[in-house]
Protein: Diphosphomevalonate decarboxylase
Organism: Pararge aegeria aegeria
Amino acid sequence: MSGIITVTAPVNIAVIKYWGKRDEDLILPLNDSVSATLDTNVMCAKTSVCARPDINENEIWLNKLKEPFNNKRLQNCLGEIKGIARAQKSVDEEFLSWNVRIYSENNFPTAAGLASSAAGYACLVTALAKLYKVKTDISALARLGSGSACRSVYGGFVRWHAGVKPDGSDSVATQIVNSLHWPEMRVLVLVVADTKKHTSSSKGMQCSVATSELLKYRVQNSVPKRVNDICKAIKDKNFATFAEITMKDSNQFHAVCLDTYPPCVYMRDVSHKIVEVMHKYNEICGQTKVAYTFDAGPNACLYLLEKDVPEVIALIKKVFPTTKQDFVKGLPESLEGFPEIPDFDFLNLFPIQPFNKDLLKYLIYTKVGDGPQEIADGSHLLNVNGNPIN
Ligand code: DP6
């Protein structure tokens, strides 16, 4: 027994966005949100934790770099878990008095600008909850690290309930359906070549809460109906309704960002080009076959059904030409080569001319997956003495 716990946890992409807090410390949102959890085989955070008597202070490494531990959110998570362990007497006082070492990394490039804090905090709190043997709702613990992280503790499609209680005890995530419910659902992440630093989600939403009239309207009038409707569309596997609500909610979220003063501009020219291409594609198909959504950055996330993947990847390659050999990442063998087939009729007739080369850095193919998993094969990131392996 090494005493080391190692966990992997997934990224999630919201289809109804969380934007705005009613409590900054407890990280309580103004509105419910809904997301899909993505397959950890393609993108995940991996975290090892241990507690030992010979560690002088709490320490954390993120993607090989040692980071200061005096981060309020990190300390809240650890403090809360230890408090529960003490109340539940799940470990002894001596174990609770030892310091911890945490080593965490993502298997996807952070340069991609993809939301990594959700996977990271979901992974961290799952690992710590196992280390201290606490029995509690993990989503509320993850929420203390980063709001969107609470949705990464379950697989499939997940709803984060805003809750109404001031102590946040009803602000938890629940699973809408598991990862097997809609097996045809696929996700393409289009990573935009962009190096600009964006306003963090936390700062951006603070500013929106303080200044945006549209945010008030969104929270009161748009989101409640959309959440109900999209939950039903997910349960019914009604792609057209799911897709329309997803796109409208992404657009409204970015409208709120523009309504913020000073405005938060996350989408870029290429992001708007992606929107234009996908609407044109749906129009030509005579049905909604693909949905886009954008978080607090320029990258697009597309939801579509497996049968349409070759056509949509071929379209993306035609309209956003690339010089990169390994442009598509994560494609299973069964689909490899298929998107290279050049001339589907519609591609030649597609009414949008190719844009400049290399506007997109790469494309990640993935699907809906499961929640955090403990790794039992001993591939820890800390060695038996609790030291980082790398
Ligand atoms: C646009 O969860 O990163 O991705 O709670 O302050 O850590 P904090 O914010 P964060 O915000 C995510 C915002 C979003 C929408 C979403 O994921 O719902």
Residues 50 and 145 are 19 Å apart (CA to CA).
